[in-house]
Amino acid sequence: MIHQRPPKSGRDYRGFTIIEVVIVVLILAVLASVVIPRLGGVGRRTEKLSVDRVSDLLAAFSYRDSLSSGSSAIEYNATDHSLTLLILRKNPEKPDESEIWMRDILAPVTNLSRTIELNTFEDGERLPNGDWSLLTNMDGTRPKIEMELLGENVHATVMLDPWAQTPTVVDENSGTRITLSDAIDLDAVGQDKDPW
After folding, report:
1. Residues 59, 180: contact at Cβ < 8 Å?
2. Among 28, 40, 83, 113, whose CB has the most other CB atoms within 10 angstroms?
3. Which residues partner with 61 through β-bridges?
4. 172: Cβ–Cβ under 8 A, 6 or more apart, which residues?
5. Which residues are registered as beta bridge partners of 134?
6. Residues 13-22, buried b or exposed e (16+ Cβ, 10 A)?
7. How many angstroms from the chain centroid is the CA of residue 105?
């Protein structure tokens, strides 16, 4: 015996049950709990990256200063919120003329996060808020450089002492102090035969 279903009327339609709605809401809540913290952490990572880039720039400045017979400089452009490493060289197009400041092609321009406020000190004196330049001297000396980066999530100071080869980063929020390691002579530490 076969049972037949009664024919459906035009008014018989099915909606979502309360269980289906609750499941969808739970799935959306789980997805939001995964995505929203990651979006909030983007600002912190961007500001931390600015601190790392400033530290790398000061390390390149120190390295260039130790190798170069001429002067090196760091230039800050307030409009672009960027730092550039410069070197004093003869113009290759006009070698008979005096030396000019040229961007060091081995050091990329450091663009800071727009949420960062940069306060720079040269031998303890604060530089102006607008454009400025820090120079090494022709006699081989260099000023003590401190760059304080204040952001929404980061408060750090990157310091380069006059004779230091690498900068020190002080995280003002946690009080941690990190000094980049100097170059290692692999021959001296017995790793000259290690495979790369």
Report:
1. yes
2. 83
3. none
4. 155, 156, 157
5. 74
6. eeeeeeeeee
7. 18
Instruction: Determine the Cα–Cα distance for residues 1 and 43; give it in Å rounded to an integer.
Output: 70
pLDDT beyond 80 at 63: yes
**CA torsion sign, 32 to 33 to 38 to 39?**
positive
Q: Which two tokens stand for residue 163?
A: 């004779």
Query: 105 exposed, middle or buried (CB, 10 Å; 0-12, 13-18, 19+)?
Result: exposed
- Structural domains in the chain, CATH included, are 43-179 (3.55.40.10)
Q: If you write DSSP's letter for every residue of 75-134 in order, what string do you get? A: EEETTTTEEEEEEEE--TT-TTSPPEEEE-TTS--EEPPTT-EEEEEETTEEPPSS-EEE
Lowest-pLDDT choice from 53-67, 86-100, 144-158: 86-100
**Residues 84 and 103 sit within 8 Å (Cβ to Cβ):** yes
- pLDDT-based confidence at 68, cuts 50/70/90? low
**pTM, two decimal places:** 0.68
CA distances from 188 to 63, 185, 191, 192, 193 (A): 20, 5, 8, 8, 11
Task: Quick: pLDDT tens for 140-183.
Answer: 678 899 999 998 888 999 999 988 888 999 887 777 777 665 55
> Which is nearest to 73 in space by CA: 125, 122, 129, 16?
122
